[in-house]
Design goal:
about 45% helix; alpha+beta
Length: about 110
């Protein structure tokens, strides 16, 4: 649970991640966020991040939906996992998101 709380703090400081709430147990629900993408584009992107990272064999991240929005989920059960591991996976998530966006040529449109 301490790692989930530390992970929450680390991801909360990064504007490219959106978190649902502070974790109460060992699960952290979040998504990659790009304010220039629509909700539909973000849903698709986060859905694909999970699959892409799993195919690469780098990490296994779960996926869930909350109020119709696709999120990623860490369930932190391995006592050997450290905050540095989480930060590394967060960097992998961001790199994967950028790669998917470039490959699919997702049109970035400002909705301000």
């Amino acid at each position: 649970m301490a790692l989930a709380r530390s992970s929450y703090v680390a991801l909360k400081q990064d504007p490219e991640f959106e978190l649902i709430h502070q974790p109460e147990l060992s699960t952290l629900v979040f998504r990659f966020n790009d304010k220039n993408l629509s909700d539909e584009q973000l849903n698709l992107l986060n859905y694909q991040i999970k699959d892409e990272l799993f195919k690469q064999g780098e990490c296994a991240i779960a996926r869930t939906k909350f109020r119709g929005i696709n999120y990623l989920k860490f369930t932190l059960l391995n006592p050997n996992t450290q905050i540095e591991d989480i930060k590394s996976i967060a960097a992998d998530i961001k790199a994967c998101a950028y790669s998917i966006k470039a490959r699919l040529k997702v049109e970035e449109t400002s909705y301000e």
